[in-house]
Amino acid sequence: MAYLKITHESLARIDVEINGIPGHFFDRTNNLSVWSIVELFLTGTHPPNVYKFTSKQDLFKNRQLLLFVVQMSCSVTPKIHLISKYSKPAAKIVMSTSVYHLGTSSYSYLTSMTDGVTKEQLGDFFIKFVVVDKTTRKSCPMPTWFTDKFRNVPLHNSNFPYTLPSVPEMPKVIYDTTVTVRYSDMDRNLHVTTHRYIQFFTDCATAAAFSGFYKHFNTDMCWYPVEKFDITLMGESKVGDKLRICTWQDEDSVQTIYFICFKEHKSVMKAVCVYGLNRIAPKLPSFEL
Q: Do residues 124 and 113 make contact, with C-beta atoms less than 8 angstroms apart?
């Protein structure tokens, strides 16, 4: 990040300030892309040089354990879509992340993002991880010595922090595209990274919009602000896999778009996105001296 400062760090909470957002976070429309918003939130949950928060580095000293994302949900305000790489002064963002729930083999965080200057709410982000055995690629319980650290920390129950529409059964009429997984799509767990799926979905949605498949949306979907999204991962994809990305629109709400990613006949990821109806205003650089 351009400038990141950790302002608080404890076992169950971490607060960070970000001053300035690098240009590569902005998409082809000069707006913050959905995947970049995810990356911003992830920066808040996993900033560099952190040792106290969750003490997860102690957990993963066991090289046999991996950490997989299984769910991400987000709700953002229109304010976040006003941020531009041409903003002067540079955007200042404050994020506070707390451990939300700790289970047998999983844990989750809840992050709040605000404007560091106006104190206005920019969004909330929920992410759930599962601890996985490196060999079997199956979930496994966390050691007692790790979970005992949180014995006196007040946590929430496993109920989801806010409500989003779930992905229904896929209808017969859908729009689909196919992609082949590349090495550059991988993360350190050697499977497709989560934000790459979001890019796959956005590309599929844009193709569907240009083809006239959706109602109301008829151009590049990066021009429409995402208000909410929920992503559930159910499997893995690796280099060379052929993925079929399917999308369709809710019958009652044109703003709600569904996605499912298939590897062969198995669903590996599904998502629901709620888009704003109005296009984001173009952002142009200021030439004032």
A: yes
Distance CA 249, CA 272 (A): 10
Give the three-class secondary structure for 4: strand
| CB contact at 8 A, 214 and 257 | yes
Q: Which two tokens stand for residue 46?
A: 């996993």
CATH class of 167-280: alpha beta
Q: Which two structure tokens, joined as six digits, stand for 252?
A: 């009652």
Task: Give the number of C-alpha atoms closer than 13 A to the C-alpha of residue 183, restricted to the C-beta side.
Answer: 0
Contact 258/272 with Cβ under 8 angstroms?
A: yes
* CA–CA separation, 257 and 17 (whole Å): 33
Q: Which two tokens stand for residue 137?
A: 């690629």
In single-letter form, the type of residue at position 10 comes to S
- CA dihedral sign of residues 203, 210, 224, 234: negative
- DSSP string of 15-37, one letter each residue: EEEEE---GGGB-TTSSB-HHHH
Sequence-ordered strand ranges (E) for 77-165:
92-102, 106-115, 121-133
**Sequence ranges of the chain with CATH classification 3.10.129.10:** 1-135, 167-280
Which superfamily is assigned to 1-135 in CATH?
A: Hotdog Thioesterase (3.10.129.10)
Predicted confidence (pLDDT) per residue in 30-84, tens digit: 888 899 999 999 988 888 888 889 888 888 888 889 999 999 999 999 999 888 7
Q: Is the pTM of this model over 0.85?
A: yes
Side chain identity at residue 174, one-letter code: I
Q: What is the pLDDT of residues 122-164, one digit of tens each?
A: 999 999 999 999 999 999 999 999 999 998 888 776 666 666 6
Question: CA-to-CA distance for 122 and 115, rounded, in angstroms?
Answer: 6
